[in-house]
Specification:
With 640 residues, this protein is of the alpha/beta class. It is built from 20 helices and 20 strands. Helix 8 crosses helix 13, helix 10 packs across helix 11 and helix 17 crosses helix 18.
Length: 640
């Protein structure tokens, strides 16, 4: 079972110009290699059976007949190969010559897709030899029967859900309105391109941008196979520059000036999920669809070990330079959101509960930046530390030093007596460390912050992050509530990197030291008494590692995958770090809490969206608070 992944290949055989027999044998060798690599779909270059650079030899009947004879041999040989092939050759029909790519699968020629746009400028003069293909397929003779030939051909695999393939040839993708646009709108999830694009200075960069951009625009997989070594160098050089892209991401790129074969695993379920949620992703009209013909084929893919990189931290770029750029951008988005809210409410003060933990640290850093943007003195940021039963000296000290070094005003409100009085009022035994004991402290802190905000005419800045909201790890009407939540769409794994980025770029050494210590402090709400002065209540021991939960959060919200598939991806991404039992345990916890805690997210305070995933009820997540989780939990329970 490949969980929606299909292995594809772009191959460039070494050829001899005008020698189809030699070229067919080289293609057969690469087919054998592709079979060894479990390739399901292989794409070969434009006119690779004859060579693209045959020029006026294309008019010679012996070459055309030999090319068709060689195609027949490849079709017969393909019966032993569990793959779909696209092979380029010249094809004569009704006295005209067409530049086609032939779809071949297990002993059958499924169809022929002709080139639509024939370049006749600069070094190209294809109109000298070829005719542009018709969009609506026609039936052409083949052996004792007929096969369809036309631009509007789709090849649908009935054994692989979501796999429908459209084809175009070289120049087709360079024009203002490529055939692949209508192919995708007609349902193609994968586009193949048999190409012969020569090399000139800088053309490789443009080519990669073009293919990457087309795959993003069409939300598809794009396999580009280019002519290479063996083509005539009379006037041109072909580099064999092969590219496999998926929705704007380059999965594989070959080295140029050779005949390299590249492989990649396309994620069909991801592509279909993206299209499903995009209401602007267009479809052809019924009249336009009538011009298409779909050829069905059945080909059971082999099981293979995934070679694709699955990022264990999907919210955090692995490249340091990109990560730093992303951190700066997110801090700016957060600060600009708060800046607008302060301006609109004419609030010259902000109130933040500062604990010495990661989330409140990030909120304070963002608020300081927003105040700088507005030209408001940082002294009008009121950082309030509210020690109680679980506060440790370490977090208290960090909160105080951090506030001082950022130039904010520090206020201390010890809430022990207030909470004890509250327990006495409601008849709760403070020796019982239950949810009432914990949440009573959180709600007292929120009341203090709200009242101070009233005193100074300011806003209470929320500190809770998206990971906590996804799990419901927040006290309802406690730390769950604020007047503007700057961290509301920042996952916990990203919070850590934002604070580290600030530490790495700040010039104040003492502030940097404090921030690094905050990063080194275990994540904790500090609501239970410490043991020997050390934090006793560690969040990740209770709800699970945030690295796992952020991974689950990304795939649940971004793509809506089956729990089984998320489990499969997590096992692959975290192999060697977490065992399968641990991954499944916390995945069940995530789903259980995610469904049961929606009522907290349904009344979430305002806050800025910073990435592709958010849980705001006014934006990304329109989820009923009383939705049943049975469908998802039953699938999880069935995993063995």
């Amino acid at each position: 079972m490949n969980h929606g992944f299909v292995r594809v290949c772009a191959a460039t055989p070494k050829i001899q110009v005008a020698d189809p027999e030699f070229n067919g044998n080289e293609i057969l060798k690469l087919m054998e290699e592709g079979r060894d690599h479990h390739a399901f779909l292989m794409v070969f270059p434009e006119l690779c059976l004859t060579g693209y650079t045959c020029n006026d030899l294309f008019w010679h009947a012996p070459l055309l007949e030999k090319a068709k004879e060689t195609l027949k041999k490849l079709v017969d040989a393909s019966a032993d190969f569990p793959m779909l092939l696209f092979v380029g050759l010249p094809w004569e029909y009704q006295g005209k010559l067409y530049n086609v790519t032939a779809a071949v699968c297990q002993g059958k020629l499924l169809g022929l897709v002709p080139k639509t746009h024939l370049p006749n400028y600069s070094e190209f003069y294809e109109m000298r030899h070829f005719t542009s293909g018709n969009q609506r397929p026609v039936m052409v003779p083949w052996k004792d029967g007929q096969v369809p030939m036309g631009t509007n051909l789709l090849f649908q695999c009935d054994s692989v859900p979501g796999l429908t393939i459209g084809a175009e040839i070289c120049e087709d993708v360079w024009v203002p309105c490529p055939p692949s646009i209508s192919h995708a709108m007609a349902g193609a999830t994968v586009i193949v391109n048999s190409s012969a694009s020569d090399e000139t200075v800088g053309k490789d960069s443009y080519r990669m941008s073009l293919i990457s951009g087309q795959s993003a625009r069409l939300v598809c997989g794009y396999i580009y196979s280019n002519a290479g070594e063996g083509e005539s160098t009379q006037d041109l050089v072909f580099g064999g520059h092969n590219i496999i892209a998926e929705n704007g991401t380059m999965l594989a790129v070959s080295e140029r000036f050779g005949h390299q074969t590249i492989y990649a695993d396309l994620d069909l379920l991801r592509l279909n999920s993206e299209r499903r949620r995009m209401t602007t992703y267009g479809q052809l009209t019924p009249e336009q669809l009538e011009a298409y013909q779909t050829v069905h084929f059945f080909l059971q893919p082999e099981t293979f070990e995934l070679k694709r990189f699955i990022d264990p931290s999907p919210f955090v770029p692995s490249d340091e330079q990109e990560r730093n750029r992303r951190c700066e951008e997110i801090l700016s988005i957060q600060a600009c959101g708060l800046k607008k809210r302060l301006e609109h409410t004419h609030a010259g003060h902000a109130v933040i509960g500062i604990s010495g933990g990661l989330d409140s640290t990030l909120a304070l850093l963002v608020t300081a930046r927003a105040f700088d943007m507005l030209g408001i003195p940082r002294g009008q940021i009121h950082a309030v530390t509210m020690p109680c039963f679980g506060t440790t000296d370490r977090t208290y000290h960090n909160a105080c030093v951090m506030t001082e070094k950022l130039g904010a005003s520090l206020m201390e409100v010890d809430i022990r007596n207030s909470v004890m009085q509250h327990f006495a009022d409601i008849g709760h035994d403070p020796a019982v460390h239950d949810v009432t004991y914990e949440n009573g402290q959180a709600r007292e802190r929120t009341q203090v912050l709200m009242d101070i905000a009233n005193q100074v005419g300011g806003l209470v800045i929320g500190t809770g992050d998206m990971s906590e909201l996804a799990l419901g790890w927040a006290t309802y009407n406690g730390d769950h509530m604020s007047m503007y939540g700057v961290n509301v769409s920042v996952p916990k794994t990203l919070v850590r990197h934002l604070v580290r980025y600030y530490a790495d770029t700040c010039k104040e050494e003492k502030l940097r030291t404090v921030l690094l210590d905050v990063l080194d402090t275990p994540v904790s709400p500090e609501l239970l008494p410490p043991e020997d002065g050390v934090i006793s209540q560690k969040t990740e021991d209770l709800v699970g590692p945030y690295q796992l939960h952020d991974f689950y959060l990304y795939y649940v919200l971004r793509f809506g995958y089956h729990p089984e598939r998320i489990y499969y991806l997590a096992c692959y991404a975290f192999r060697g770090q977490y065992d399968k039992e641990t991954i499944l345990k916390w995945l069940k916890t995530f789903y259980r809490r995610f469904f049961s805690q929606q009522f907290k997210r349904s009344c979430l305070p305002d806050g800025p969206k910073v990435g592709s995933v958010a849980v705001s009820p006014r934006g990304d997540l329109r989820m009923p608070s009383d939705a049943c989780s049975r469908v998802w939990m039953e699938e999880l329970e069935a995993i063995r």
